[in-house]
Specification:
Helix content: 25-40%
Strand content: 15-25%
Radius of gyration: 23 Å
Number of helices: 17
Number of strands: 20
Structural class: alpha+beta
Largest sheet: 6 strands, mixed
Shape: globular
Length: 555
């Protein structure tokens, strides 16, 4: 089903690596790798509060059953074979579908307990509870039951067909999280009492090559050490340290001083302009890698705000933005201006969706149609004398985002819109402000989604975070569109390629018409590696390079 586009994506990917400088023969073996990042995860639960930094950190320690690799090919990480219609592991039953999952023998959690099919049944049980706070509620709720056939085999019985049936989830350890889930009776209680939240250094929570042995929110440090029960290739480091430095300028200084070894491109770390600056200044000191990625920088609009509820105002905000200039200023042209949430490298991209041009005159006209006219200071006001002022937030200390804010603020001011910058630490923005929809205007950050994955989590009506669903889902805009919901449902359940293509085209058209989000650009991942670090393979998507960290070596 994915063969053709893999080849296309692979040919579009590029990497730039500068010549490495050989380490002196007398150098001592490097046993610790210190990775510099600019954010710290709010918790370590893999299914609650989705964050890029969390997924990157967990990649070292907690493996999903399957994941897309650097060639964008879905591969087994903890299974023996991917389920398919041809191998008989997927079959239709009534209106639904049965998907068989077989785990590899010998898998163990970090305390030596075997990984079993019961661990998959537990994820379904917790995720199927609307009060659990799981981000991808709809995925688990579309499964009627998980049948445990034997120790290593389970069958997921879907109520209807599911196009992403071979994208297999991350497990939870039944022997540790099972009792917590059983004891939880109040909404949100499981998420608060999970060991991933209360005792995240418990070894049995992890089944990857490394264990999280330290998680310190005060010092913003995560320490990983080899998992003695890991059955794959022996990890190459005795310790991996994730050190969070919220200000990216300070992070760059730590890299230059040697206090940090590595700045990854697939986790929040140095910004692209910083990496380009380092490459100009120190062309041979580090290895530099660049890769186009699915990470999508955008601005969420809170549609509960009466100003932003008006589609004319949303359109005017986008028309006022020169995205080509913005992308060029921030990345020397390495980042691609976005039309919608679908990257041009993806097979479901629809090139016919029109881009919104930079047109300040049209933006002013739309604002006037909506009742907003410039005052003496140039900022628009309505008939009641209220200023057209919007709260504008992003992650504090991220230099590129803060620079982008200043550019956007000036471009909006030119058409009579005032942006009030109120930035927050990443943990606050992602852990509270967005999740509880506490922002009143605009929030700029990035989405990172799996290849070809329908956008239910971010754009479907049933994924608006509310108190009733314990703030599960990531539709922070409160975007509700019946056509979008219907197209997402087709993209999730209809196995006909033509119907799939039509549904994805419809989603992109609706997105471009309604603008619940202002699209900015797709990221290019920029890595700064020590010349002695080998084995890091950027993927360009949400299965981060840390998922293959057992291949990393110091040479």
């Amino acid at each position: 089903m994915r063969t053709g586009w893999r080849r296309r994506a692979a040919t579009a990917i590029f990497a730039v690596a500068l010549a490495a400088v050989a380490a002196p023969a007398s150098a001592q073996p490097r046993e610790t790798l210190t990775i510099g990042v600019s954010q710290f995860p709010s918790t370590l639960h893999p299914a609650i509060d989705p964050e890029v930094i969390k997924a990157y950190a967990l990649g070292f320690a907690l493996r999903p059953i399957s994941a897309n690799d650097k060639d964008w090919k879905n591969t087994c990480l903890q299974c023996t074979e991917l389920p398919s219609l041809t191998n008989g592991m997927v079959r239709f039953e009534g209106k639904g579908m049965a998907v068989t999952v077989t785990l590899r023998p010998g898998l163990r959690w970090g305390d030596g307990t075997p990984v079993t099919a019961q661990d998959l049944a537990l994820v379904w049980k917790v995720g199927n509870d609307p009060a659990s706070g799981f981000a991808e509620m709809a995925y688990w709720q579309r499964i009627d039951r998980v049948e445990v056939v034997d120790t290593l085999t389970a069958v997921m019985h879907f109520r209807e067909p599911w196009t992403q049936f071979d994208q297999l989830p991350t497990l939870l350890p039944t022997h540790l999280e099972g009792p917590v889930a059983e004891a939880a009776t109040a909404p949100g209680e499981y998420g608060r009492k999970s060991l991933y939240v209360r005792a995240p250094t418990t070894p049995g929570l992890y089944n990857g090559p490394y264990l999280i042995t330290q998680y310190d929110s005060a010092t913003q440090i995560i320490v990983l050490e080899p998992n003695p029960y890991w059955g794959g290739p022996k990890p190459g480091f005795r310790r991996i340290v994730l050190r969070s430095i919220g200000n990216t300028a300070a992070l760059q200084a730590n890299l230059q001083s040697g206090d940090v070894d590595f700045a990854p491109g697939d986790a929040p770390s140095l910004t692209l302009d910083q990496v380009l600056q380092l490459r100009r200044q120190f062309p041979a000191r580090w290895t530099y890698l660049f890769r186009p990625a699915l990470g999508y920088e955008h601005i969420d609009l809170n549609l509960d705000n009466p100003i932003l509820a008006d589609a004319r105002v949303r359109r005017a905000l986008l028309l006022a933005v020169d995205r080509q200039v913005l992308a060029k200023k921030l990345s020397d042209g390495l980042q691609m201006a976005a039309v919608s949430f679908v990257h041009p490298l993806e097979p479901m991209y629809d090139a016919s969706v029109p881009a919104s041009p930079h047109d300040p005159a049209r933006a002013r006209a739309l604002l006037a149609e909506a009742g907003w006219h410039p005052g003496a200071d140039g900022i628009c006001r309505n008939a009641r004398g209220e200023r057209l002022a919007l709260d504008f937030r992003t992650t504090a200390g991220n230099r590129v985002r803060e620079l982008a804010q200043l550019v956007l603020k000036d471009q909006w001011k030119a058409v009579g819109v005032e942006a009030l910058i109120r930035n927050e630490p990443a943990r606050t923005l992602f852990g509270e402000t967005l999740r509880q929809r506490a922002f009143t205007g605009m929030a700029m950050y990035a989405w990172s989604t799996p290849i070809g994955y329908p956008p239910r989590q971010t754009l479907a009506s049933d994924h608006v975070p509310t108190e009733a669903n314990n703030y599960g889902g990531s539709n922070y805009m409160n975007f509700r569109n019946a056509r979008m919901d219907a197209a997402i449902a087709v993209a999730e359940t209809d196995l006909d390629p033509g119907h799939q293509k039509a549904a994805w085209a419809e989603m992109q058209r609706i997105y471009a018409e309604d603008l619940p989000v202002l699209p900015l650009f797709f990221r290019t991942e920029a890595y700064v590696l020590p010349t002695w670090l080998k084995g890091v393979e950027p993927t360009g998507h949400s299965a981060y390079s840390s998922l293959w960290a057992e291949q990393w070596r110091a040479e």
